Amino acid sequence: MRRLSLAGLVAAAVVCSAGASDPGDRLQNPAQEARAEHLFTQLRCVVCQNESIDDSEADLARDLRQIVRQQVAQGRSDSQIKSFLVARYGEFILLKPKFSAGNSVLWLAPLLIVLCGGAFFAVRSRGGTPLEPALTPEEESKLGALQADAGDRASAVAAGTQGPGHLGKAS
C-alpha cells in the first residue's frame, strides 16, 4: 500500500511539472507563473490548432509560452498580453475569441438555427396549413369510382373470372 501511494505521489509530481519541459523556463515568482499558466490555457497553438499552448508540445507553442512568461515578468496585464499576441497572430490565437461585428455570424448562427427550427416545429405541431389541400367533391367522386373499379377487378381475379383483357386462354 505504501508503494502504491509513493507511486501516486511521483506520478502527480511528474504531471504537475509537465507545464514546462525545462524547469529553467519557469518564472521565479509562483504567482506570476500561475498567471502565465492560466494564460497558456486561453491561447491556441497555431500549429496544432485545437490545443492550447499549455497542452501542445510544438516548438511554436514552447516559444509562445516563453513570450507569455516574458510579458508577465515585465508586469503586463492579461489583456495587454492577449492584445499583443492577437496583433501578432490574429484573433485565431484566442481559444475563445471576443464577440465583434466581424464574427457575429459565427456567434449568432447556432442560435438562429435553433430558433428557426423551433418555430418550424411549433407551427407544424399546432396543425398549421396542411401539406396537401383537401380533395374537391369532383376529385372525391373520381377517386370513389377508381376504388370501386379496382375492387371489382380484385374480386373477379379472386373468383377466377377474367376481366375484359383476357384472351380466353386458361392459365
Q: What keyword list fits this structure?
A:
171 residues; mainly alpha; Helicase, Ruva Protein, domain 3; 0% strand; rod-shaped
List the helices and strands and how they pair.
Elements: H1 2-16, H2 30-40, H3 59-73, H4 78-89, H5 104-125, H6 137-159
Describe what is shown at a glance.
The longest helix is centred in the C-terminal third of the chain and has 23 residues, at 137-159.
What's the CATH topology name of the domain at 16-93?
A: Helicase, Ruva Protein, domain 3
Number of strands: 0
Number of DSSP helical runs: 6
Beta-strand portion reads: under 5%
Largest sheet: none
Mean residue pLDDT: 79
Q: Please state the overall shape, judged from the principal axes of the Cα atoms.
A: rod-shaped
Residue stretches low in confidence (pLDDT < 50, at least 5 long) are 9-21
The percentage helix is 55-70%
CATH architecture of the domain at 16-93: Orthogonal Bundle
Give me the Rg, rounded: 37 Å
C-alpha termini separation: 88 Å
What letter string, H or E per element, gives the SSE order? HHHHHH
Query: Structural class of the helix and strand makeup?
Result: mainly alpha
CATH superfamily of the domain at 16-93: Cytochrome C biogenesis protein
CATH class of the domain at 16-93: Mainly Alpha
Structure, explained:
With 171 residues, the protein is an all-alpha fold. It has helices at 2-16, 30-40, 59-73, 78-89, 104-125, 137-159. The chain is 57% helix and 0% strand. The protein is rod-shaped, with a radius of gyration of 37 Å. The model is unreliable at 9-21 (pLDDT under 50).
